[in-house]
Amino acid sequence: MLDRPHPTPEAPTMDPFVLAKALSGQHFIGGRYVPARSGKTFPVVNPATGDEVARAAEGDAADVEAAVEDAARAQKEWAKTPARKRGALVAQCAAILRAHVEELGRLIALETGKALRTESRVEANTVADILEFFGGLGGELKGETVPFAPEVLSVTVREPLGVVGAIIPWNVPMLLMALKVAPALVAGNSVVVKSAEEAPLAVLRICELMNRVLPAGVFNMVSGFGPECGAPLVAHPKVRKVTFTGSVETGKIVYRTAAEKLIPVTLELGGKSPMIVFADCDFEKTLAGALTSMRFTRQGQSCTAASRIYVERPIFQRFVDAMAERVDKMVMGDPLDEKTDIGTIISEGQFEKVSGFIEEGRATAGANGRACSAMPTDPALRKGLFIQPHIFTGLDKESRLVREEIFGPVTCIFPFDDAESVLEEANDSEYGLAASLWTNNLKVALNLAHKLEAGLVQVNQNLVVQANLSYGGVKSSGLGKEASLEAMLEHFTHKKTIMVNMG
Ligand code: ADP
Ligand code: MG
């Protein structure tokens, strides 16, 4: 339980600039804020202006060591807490977060550049929803009785794994953290989160808020860079499970280290998700669906972004034109302004990367890239990392824009002639995270849904991850599932068999 006084205000704080400053320079270990042992910090930048708004503790192996040791100590008692009681505490955390939704939405908008109305506030609400969902699952940590022999009672019990290391990215850090922390805790594990260097603040505040309810040491957080802070967390001998969301490249490094220790991992990596539109679709609904599918309000910074759109030839041109027209109407601007639909790219590094893809597309002979939405004109935003959404047509299937995850507001649209050929194209990808189908022909939809290589296929909708529905990809998109009861049972517990000979 958290003891005051703390650097952060107890009440919801609506000024994100004030809260960002108060959260500066801290990890959260053993139930309290602590600075990095080295004393080092690094800047947290508002991508809408380029201004430094806070500094984050720059963690290294020494901080990881402290956090894991505290987590290991706390986990022993936590595991003895009845499962439903653990769940009730996580549900209590959800109630606290509900009271802080506005605060958290503003803070995440400030540090990530995601628009408050369309993205950041939504994310904060979803976090509370995920905690509520998992909070109710304590009683589901059931085992089985196994028929072995009449005189031998054979049962299985679900036991926690121990200390879980959770590494998260910057695109939806609060939500992705909740998908890891909530099931891990309810299952009786303790957790050390390594936040993303680009967005360490809102998740740190959540850690503090949850520590008002949880016993000290069961939920800890360190901030810092991947190799210096993430790698020692994965490698720590007392970390008995790693759950990671991020790039394929880093996911492979994490997996290799985990293999040395023979510990289980969950990996949620990239995507290049196809959206397949048939001529018989509900045109208006599908158009609106294309905008949300491409996650334009998140600047396309989503693993499930519909970055390859296949449209049946008879409606191809009409669809492309109508989509561009719709995106044009979206407002780019200050993430904290309620009028804004589209905010900024997270960092200069990503800005360069995404811009590189766009330049390459523009330079491709035969390709057409339409830049949509007006750039903001407010002089206060002149250093903001704004990129106009781009809709490309005429690209070659082998183009880097079609094969690689751009993680920006860039989509490629292709015409297709029949279900068989579009299926082949859709599956011709290293990735297999999500896919969506838009048609009123149930037979076609079900047939393709079965044959698409993806962890999640949606027909006539394309929602982001939802509590209670297993989420996770195939191929290079990752290993394991998140967000569901199955995910909690399979990825945060092991099954012990106990046999009692009564003969
Ligand atoms: P990005 O391209 O956004 O940097 P990453 O996969 O590199 O995506 O980052 C996702 C998370 O993984 C971040 O929290 C980052 O700090 C962390 N990370 C990066 N490199 C490593 C590493 N070698 N070991 C552990 N974590 C890492
Ligand atoms: Mg990286």
UniProtKB/TrEMBL annotation:
Xref: Pfam families: Aldedh
Transmembrane segments: none
Keyword NAD: no
Annotated coiled-coil segments of the chain: none
Domain Aldehyde dehydrogenase per the UniProt entry, residue ranges: 34-498
Protein family: Belongs to the aldehyde dehydrogenase family.
Protein name, per record: Acyl-CoA reductase-like NAD-dependent aldehyde dehydrogenase
Protein's organism: Muricoccus pecuniae
Organism lineage: Bacteria, Pseudomonadati, Pseudomonadota, Alphaproteobacteria, Acetobacterales
